[in-house]
Amino acid sequence: MKGQKRKIISIFLLGLCLLFASCGKKSQEGTAVQEATTEEDPTMGFQTARDYVVTIRDGVKLFREPQLMVEAYTVLNKGVNLRRTGTKGRWTRVRLNDTSLYVESSSVKETVMTWAAEPEEEKNHHVVFIDPAKQIYADPKMEPLFPSWNSDYPPEKQRMTKGAVGVATGAFEYEITLDVAEKLKHELELRGYTVILSRASHTASLSNKERAEAGNQSDAEIMLRLTAQGTENPETRGVLAFVDSADNLFTSDNYENNFYMANAILTEICSATDVNRLGIFQTEKTVFLNYAKKPAVTVQMGFLSNAEEDRNLSDPEYQNKLARGIANGIDTYFQYMDMKQEEEKVKENGEQASETVTEE
Fold first, then answer.
1. Phi–psi pair at 101, nearest 5 degrees
2. 293 exposed, middle or buried (CB, 10 Å; 0-12, 13-18, 19+)?
3. Which residues in 190-221 are b (16+ Cβ under 10 Å) and which e?
4. Strand 139-144 relative to strand 156-160: parallel, antiparallel, unpaired?
5. pLDDT in tens, 59-85
6. Residue 101 bridge partners (DSSP)
7. CB 14 within 8 A of CB 49
8. 49 DSSP 8-state letter
């Protein structure tokens, strides 16, 4: 008898649960829906929204989870518009780079914007290829230093050498370069660029030649290589850039653009970080640059052999500064190139008009 009563009570309680669950849902289109919440998953339980918010100060952090203890996904300056997809207590859920992220509600405010469909959104037409140098495994095999050579035995270099290791943190170069590359990708995508990475993991197995060829075959307009090497002198610190020399038969057509881009990026990195500028170095000893058929620059972001710089390069906040500085330099480069292109169009149209008048 007692067992039968328990069974009846269980069925009654189950019915009540189902009734309350059905009452809690809204079927009307455009009405907010309260998502199911669990203690195990802090990303659940958000009231859905479909509008825009804007950051109200510099240094606003976005997280993969609504928790302050996790590492920030990216850091935004004041005035960045974001799609709001949900709210819950102190947290606002937004959409960025096809990823759901979380920001403290006190760091944003609602802004008057329409919810644009993807095809209607204004897109930056520029495409950037980024190569985070190194990988977890070195490759001792050899590859040609240049695309072709007049000898049966062209100069060769190792397909992939071992990267540097931080003297203070023990961080690997391949970790640092990918960390900054990902942050740079996000920063550029915020500005509307299309970004292609040569690798998305540490276990990639790509030679320097293969990375350059991937950039050549892509839609990218420029190719950027990020390094964080070491040196025998532990006092050496600062940022520098490498470009192919003006005499390089394979890349000389891009020399002027290479140099302008390198200068713009170094200028903006130094402005963003106050780091020492070591200059622009011309070389023909880099496989990646020798094979690049597009404007290309290698940026040495710092030296893992210097203890202070090693710690900086492993700091997410410093990495964000680096990414913003490099992105600012890329902006400057494309503004210059767009201006040159416009001037050439005006000149070409003027010459065509002059020819027409002469013929008449």
1. -130, 170
2. middle
3. beebbbbbbbeeeebebbbbbbbbbbeebebb
4. antiparallel
5. 999 998 999 988 888 888 888 888 888
6. 94
7. no
8. E
- In angstroms, the Cα distances linking 222 to 72, 282, 290, 313 are 28, 18, 14, 24
| 242 contacts 208 by C-beta, under 8 angstroms | no
Closest among 256, 269, 254 to 326, alpha carbons compared? 269
- Count other Cβ atoms within 10 Å, centred on residue 156: 14
Per-residue model confidence as pLDDT tens digits over 163-199: 999 999 999 999 999 999 999 999 999 999 999 999 9
How many Å from the N-terminal Cα to the C-terminal Cα in the chain? 112
Q: Which of 248, 222, 241, 245 is nearest to 336 (CA)?
A: 222
DSSP 146: S
Largest CA distance in the chain: 112
Tell me the sheet residues that pair with 99: 96
Write down the H helix ranges in 24-130.
none
CA atoms within 13 A on the CB side of 194: 10
The answer to whether the predicted template modeling score (pTM) of the entire model surpasses 0.70 is no
Look up residue 59 and give its amino acid. G
Of 77, 61, 81, 78, the C-alpha closest to 69 is 61
| Residues whose CB is less than 8 angstroms from the CB of residue 223 and which lie 6 or more positions away in sequence, other chains included | 129, 131, 212, 215, 216, 288, 292, 294, 295, 296, 297
Strands annotated E in 57-138: 60-63, 72-76, 81-88, 91-96, 99-104, 108-111, 127-132
Question: Are 25 and 33 within 8 A, CB to CB?
Answer: yes
